[in-house]
Design goal:
Elements lengths: L8 E5 L4 H12 L3 E6 L2 H11 L5 E6 L5 H15 L4 E4 L14 H10 L1 H18 L2 E8 L10 H20 L5 E8 L6 H7 L8 H8 L11 H11 L11 E4 L10 H21 L1
Parallel strand pairs: 1-2, 1-4, 2-3, 4-5, 5-6, 6-7
């Protein structure tokens, strides 16, 4: 199947690392014009230098997604420079843990301002340009926790669920303008964050292999997803090959569904077992 994205004008948010950077790299390899943003100027500048080897053109800017004026200015700069915007990949945002006993309402609202409203700001900024040309593709990068509710991580659960609902709603209201909106919901995609989770275990308590075995118990495919498992679907949804798909919610999670709800308990029990292992070693 030939997916022709050469010359497409693409915005990828949260593109300095992880899934966002992989998506930007994939569009660049297809010969698209790629505009990327993230919070840290040094990181996004480095990502832009990397993309320049393959992309038809690159714009890289530091943008705070909580700043409505800054988001609009960035989108308008891209549209003015390239004559419009064809594709928006709304990837910016990260998970946040916490429960009823540890969170304040303000912390949930702060997360919502980055995630829900950050995604909304970019959509609101690009849609006028897409309407003008009567063509657009918006792909929301979300998390499985927004569709399969877990017993912890209230900010991530509630705000991802809101983002997915927004994508479905816009996926119904915007096709009349030939703007299609879909959401991809990530499972365990290995972009380096699992190294950090492993380091949260008691020092010297377990091997990385033991840790991975614990994490992957809830993934039917038995492995972590890779960025390449995401980028193929993103490229497809951004193309003319997906001209009758809108309002879809697609899980990229290796078959994981309700199993995700057990993970907080699994992790807690594993952590307790590792603490007991460390204590036993110290006592022997």
């Amino acid at each position: 199947m030939n997916i022709d994205l050469s010359g497409k004008r693409v915005i990828v948010t949260g593109a300095s690392r992880g899934i966002g950077r992989a998506i930007a790299r994939a569009f660049a390899a297809e010969g698209a014009r790629v505009a990327i943003c993230a919070r840290t100027e040094a990181d996004i500048t480095a990502a832009g230098v990397e993309l320049a080897d393959t992309a038809q053109a690159v714009i890289a800017r530091a943008v705070d997604v909580t700043d409505t004026a800054a988001v609009k200015a960035f989108v308008d700069e891209v549209a003015t420079s390239w004559g419009g915007v064809d594709v928006l990949i709304n990837n910016a945002g990260q998970g946040r843990g916490g429960n009823l006993d540890t969170l304040t309402p303000e912390q949930i609202l702060e997360h919502a301002n980055v995630l829900q409203m950050g995604h909304f700001r970019f959509i609101q900024a690009v849609v006028p340009h897409m309407r003008k040309q009567r063509w657009g593709r918006i792909v929301e990068i979300n998390a499985l926790a927004g569709t399969q509710i877990t017993p912890d991580g209230i900010p991530s659960v509630s705000n991802r669920a809101a983002c997915i609902a927004m994508a479905k709603s816009l996926g119904m209201s915007l096709p009349k303008d030939n703007i299609l909106v879909n959401t991809l919901n990530m499972g365990w995609i290995d972009t380096g964050q699992w190294n950090r989770h492993f380091k949260e275990m008691p020092a010297g308590s377990c091997t990385r292999e033991e840790f991975d075995q614990m994490v992957l118990k809830v993934v039917p495919a038995g492995r972590f997803g890779q960025p390449e498992d995401v980028t193929g679907m993103v490229l497809f949804l951004a193309s003319d090959r997906a001209s009758f798909i809108s309002g879809a919610s697609i899980d990229i999670a290796g078959g994981m569904q309700g199993q995700i709800a057990y993970y907080p308990t699994l992790k807690r029990e594993f952590n307790e077992a590792m603490q007991a292992r460390v204590a036993a070693r110290a006592a022997s």
